[in-house]
Amino acid sequence: MDAKPARRELLVAASAAATLGALGLAGCATAIPARTRVLVVGGGYGGATAAKYIRLFSANRIEVVLVEPEASFVSCPTSNLVLGGSKQLADITTPYDGLTRHHGIQVVKDRVAAIDAAKKQATLASGPVIGYDKLVLSPGIDLMWGGVTGLQSAHAEGRILQAWKAGPETVALRRQLEAMADGGVYVLTIPESPYRCPPGPYERACQVASYFKAAKPRSKVLILDANPDVTSKGPLFKKVWADEYPGIVEYRPQHKAVAVDARAGSVKFEVQEDVKGTVLNVLPPMRAGAIAVDAGLANANGRWCHVDFLTFESTAAKDIHVLGDAVQSAPAMPKSGHMANSHAKVAAAAIVAQLGGTPVNPAPMLNNTCYSFVDASRVIHVASVHEYVAAEKTFKAVPGSGGVSSAPSALEGQYGWNWARTIWADMLT
Ligand SMILES: Cc1cc2nc3c(=O)[nH]c(=O)nc-3n(C[C@H](O)[C@H](O)[C@H](O)COP(=O)(O)OP(=O)(O)OC[C@H]3O[C@@H](n4cnc5c(N)ncnc54)[C@H](O)[C@@H]3O)c2cc1C
Question: How far is the CA of 76 from the centre of ligand 1 (A)?
Fold first, then answer.
C-alpha cells in the first residue's frame, strides 16, 4: 500500500470531513469503540447505500459486512427497458467490488438464513454465524404466492412470470414476448397498493406497447389493475396510452386477480369475468422479504415492518434497522429505489450517531423522484420531498415540494438515465 495518499483519496477525505461536519457527526466518529461492526443484509438500493454511508459517516471506523446472495447488482429501475428491447441486462448491472475497493466493506456472497436479535448475531445459509453491534436489513420484497391460486406452480414451470426482481426472469419474460405471434395479448395484472414501485407496472405496459407498435402491431397490452385507478402519474400514463398506443393498450381498473390457469392461459378475478391472454404477467400481492418476516420484524399485518422513522430502527427488535420496500410506508412514501437510498442515508447517520454516543438528527428529510420511460427515449417523472413530523412520529410530504412532468420528453429521458447512473454510482462506487 502507498504511504502517501493519492490526490483522489485526499479529496475524498476532505469531502467526507465536510459531510461529517454538516451532519454533526465530526466528533462522533472518534468516539466509536474499536471493532464496532454493522452487518448489512441485502445489497440493493437500501442496503448497499447504507453500507457505504456508514463507512463514510464513521470515517471508516465502523467495520461493515454486507451479505448479498447475488454476484452483481441488477437494477429494477430501468429493467422495463429490457422488456421493451432497447436495453440489455448488462446495461443495468453493476458489480459489488467497488464497495470493497473504495470503502473497505467486506462483501459476503451468501444469504442470511436466520437472525437472533437477542444474541445480536445472524446465521448465513452456508453455516457461519456473524455477530453485530447493529444490523441493517433491506431485503426488498417477496411475492405472496398464496394471493393468486395456481400462480406459484405456474411460475415454477416457467409459464407465468413476474420479473418484479430484475435479473434472468426479466430476460425470460422478454423471450416470451418475442416468441408471441403478432395478434397476441399480453396481460399484466397489478395487485392492490402498496406494492413495489407504484408507476412500475404502467411503465412496463408502455415498454411492451412500444415493442408491439414497432414489431407486432396487431398485438394488445391489457392492464388489469386491482386498484380503482392508475396509482401513479395517472393522467400522464392515460394520455400516453391514448395518444401513442391507441388500439394496443387497454386499461381496466377494479380487476383483482385471484387465480390463474396457466394451461388455459386465463386469469380469474374476484368480481369481474375471466380474461385470456397469450403472455400472462401476473403480479401477486407483496410483502417484506422473507428474512424480515421470519425474524419477526413484519409487525404491520404480517407484511411490512414498522420502524421508528428517526432512526429506521425496527419497533420489534432493538439494534435492527429496516430500510426500503420492507418498511411499512409513511403517508405518500412510495416503495422506490430512490426512497430506499434516502432511507439508507438517514439510517446511516442515525446509526453512526448512536454508536458514537451523539444525538440523532431530530429533523431528517427524504426525497424521491421516479422516472418512467414511455418508449425507448422519452420519460415522465414524479418528485416529492418528505419531512419528519415529530408530533406524529412520521414522514409527510412537504406541501408544494414535488411535481410531475407536463408531458413526456427526450430531455427527461436524459435526466432519467443520468438519475440511474448517478444513483448506481452513489450506492456502489
Ligand atoms: C420493474 C420495476 C421498475 C422500477 N422502477 C423504479 C424507478 O424507476 N425508480 C425507483 O426509484 N424505483 C423503482 N423500482 C422500485 C425499486 O426497485 C425498489 O423500490 C428498490 O429496489 C427497493 O430497495 P430495497 O433495498 O428495499 O430492495 P432491493 O433493491 O430489492 O434489494 C434487496 C436485496 O436484498 C437481498 N436479500 C434478500 N433476502 C436476503 C437475505 N436473506 N440475505 C441476504 N440478502 C438478501 C436481495 O438479493 C436484494 O439484492 C422499480 C421496481 C421494479 C420491479
Answer: 6
